[in-house]
Amino acid sequence: MIRPIASKFGNTLALAGILALMSACLLVTPTAAQVRTLPDFTDLVEQAGPSVVNIRTMEKISRHQGTSGPMDQDMLEFFRRFGLPMPNLPNVPNTPRQTPPQNQPLQPEEQPRGVGSGFILTPDGMVMTNAHVVDGADEVVVTLTDKREFKAKIIGTDKRSDVAVVKIDAAGLPAVKVGDVNRLKVGEWVMAIGSPFGLENSVTAGIVSAKQRDTGDYLPFIQTDVAINPGNSGGPLINMRGEVVGINSQIYSRSGGSMGISFAIPIDEAMRVSDQLRANGHVTRGRIGVQIDQVTKEVAESIGLGKPQGALVRSVEAGTPADKAGVEAGDIIIKFDGKPVDKSSDLPRMVGGTKPGTKSTLTVFRRGSSKDLSVVVAAIEADKTASRGDGGSKGDKSDKAHSSSAGQSLGLVVSDLSDAQKKDLKIKGGVLVDSATDAAAKGGLREGDVILTIANVAVANVADFDNLLKKLDKTKPLSVLLRRGDWVQYTVIRPAR
């Protein structure tokens, strides 16, 4: 009778011991994990810190000698607060007045313009920073961590990428190590060194929040939660191997200070720009001459593209490489030189990074099938904004042949285009929208639009339009390619319920 009890008691003790051991492991494991994962940045700061510089910019202004500047009141408040002897400033209340000489010539004067950061690219003094840090400056002063100051020469700036290279007359400088952005992972620890608000050699850290972040600019940015403030611009973003992976460039902020969303230019893109700046003083990019837009999921499904991808060609500039290659408004460019165009913003980067004169291949999706076109990339011109149409069609409506009511079930009334209208619009066919109501209006069509295709089928005239609508199932969504002014776009007409 005793042995079973003793056995049970022994088993109970053993079980209790195992549970206690497991509990101890569970209590110890998180602490150990935290100790292993929390990074120590001290070695990185010692390694990369000497390569980071402070950049001050000056601009020359002209004013009459003896006149007061905008900082006089602030200076007086400083002297009052600390009980210092009051300076003799002109044109400021409660200070002795000075009468400036008559007809005195303007005196050039240097005034602080801004403060930023940068980092040493080469031991002989090439320094990389942001274009907006040095653009428009009359003088650039670079301060090293050992407090040596140098006047820098601007080698070149590129506003599109916001990258600039300046040169200081020095040798044997500690250059940074350039990292591989492709190895950078979301969630990885990174560190920034710079001069926020002019405070030199400030170190902040965080993680990579996202890669390939499209903010509408020319480059896809690295998003981090590293504290970046005014003055950090141009400083390096550094990985845990002590390598520069980006240039801190922008912040998202409602207050002007850090809100945990900052953006860095990928270093691989920046290095490509800097190579051209150092060689030529400017950057040459490729262009093919198309105005593009994104492809929505709804449009992609309606035209048989499958998933939203590529860049929708809204217009083609006459005489450009795209025009000569046979690209048409309404095409969707899905590949460039065999590389997928996942979203519309990818195309300018791909084409822009191609050397002018290069023969490339465009893969376009047109009316339900893919087609390869050969295009010779040209050099990009000076920045210019796309000219949008006036929203209406051109030509005289009195020349139209006959109207049709076949599309009334969709809320559409259309008519033929005249020869003069086709010539003016540089199109071979299509029908003019005279009225758009109900489902057509909800789909975004309006009077004056020109319908080019329906369900991926080209519409030459009203007869084509009538025959096509009779064959299609109007109870299902219909994709429509339309021309509005100088632009084309896709829309989807959903049947009225």
- The CATH class designation of the largest domain is Mainly Beta
Question: Into how many domains do the coordinates divide?
Answer: 4
Low-confidence stretches: 1-9, 64-71, 89-102, 382-403
| Percentage of β-strand residues | 25-35%
Structural class: alpha+beta
Number of alpha- plus pi-helical segments: 11
Major beta-sheet overview: 7 strands, antiparallel
What distance separates the N and C termini? 82 Å
Helix content: 10-25%
Superfamily (CATH H level) name of the largest domain: Trypsin-like serine proteases
CATH topology of the largest domain: Thrombin, subunit H
**Roughly how many Å is the radius of gyration?**
33 Å
Give the overall shape.
elongated
Overall average residue pLDDT: 79
- Number-wise, the strands total 28
CATH architecture heading of the largest domain: Beta Barrel
Note down, in words, how this protein is organized.
By secondary structure, this protein is of the alpha+beta class. It has 4 domains: 49-87 and 108-167, Thrombin, subunit H (Beta Barrel); 177-280, Trypsin-like serine proteases (Thrombin, subunit H), CATH 2.40.10; 286-379, Roll (Pdz3 Domain), CATH 2.30.42.10; 397-493, Pdz3 Domain (Roll), CATH 2.30.42.60. Helix content is 22%, strand content 33%. The strands form 5 sheets. Strands 22, 23, 24, 25, 26, 27 and 28 form a 7-stranded antiparallel β-sheet that branches. A 6-stranded antiparallel β-barrel has the order 1-2-3-6-5-4. Strand 2 (106-120) and strand 3 (126-129) form a beta hairpin.
